[in-house]
Write a structure and sequence with these properties.
Layout: H1 3-10, E1 12-17, H2 21-34, E2 38-44, H3 45-51, E3 59-65, H4 67-76, E4 86-93, E5 96-102, H5 104-110, H6 115-121
Antiparallel strand pairs: 1-5, 2-3, 3-4, 4-5
Helix pairs in contact: 4-6, 5-6
């Protein structure tokens, strides 16, 4: 794997869903419309592959957003239009359903957005994909263990 690919994947958040791909897509699209956001497209990429005689695992791309929120972002940073509307990929990985999306902080950084404009890319009213994942099944992220300071029995001081 190349360093560029590793860096790009570091900006992608992937979570596990408790439900099938179809049920996860239905739940997300329901949340989007319930929040009054626009559902721009739901692309069943596996179905598109079947139409040309190819096979692909269950893979669905959901594109959604709010022109009211996204327009100021694109006005400030025209290349943000490459990442807007927001996209969530729901896909099968063996028996698991995974949901992937670009981290909001990564979107903000890549387009040099200020905090007020950056909030528009994934506003608080956006249905957060993290609300319906299985919390105990999160993708593990390696973390450094904090160093423990030990006391010496003979002095009561630290090493």
């Amino acid at each position: 794997m190349t360093d560029d690919r590793i860096a790009a994947e570091a900006d992608v958040v992937t979570k596990l869903s408790r439900q099938s791909v179809a049920d996860t897509v239905a739940k997300l699209t329901g949340m989007i419309t319930a929040k009054g956001m626009r559902l721009f497209a739901v692309i069943d990429q596996a179905a598109e592959a079947r139409e040309v005689g190819l096979t692909l695992r269950e893979t669905t791309l959901v594109m959604f957003g709010s022109p009211k929120a996204g327009t100021p972002v694109m006005a400030a940073s025209p290349l943000a239009a490459l990442d807007l509307p927001l996209k969530v990929l729901i896909w099968a990985d063996g028996a698991q359903t995974k949901v992937s999306y670009y981290a909001p902080a990564a979107l903000m950084a890549s387009h040099h957005l200020t905090a007020d404009l950056g909030a528009n890319t994934w506003p608080a009213s956006t249905p957060s994909p993290t609300r319906w994942w299985l919390p105990s099944a999160r993708i593990p992220v390696p973390r450094k263990r904090p160093e423990r300071r030990r006391t010496r029995p003979d002095t009561g001081g630290t090493r």
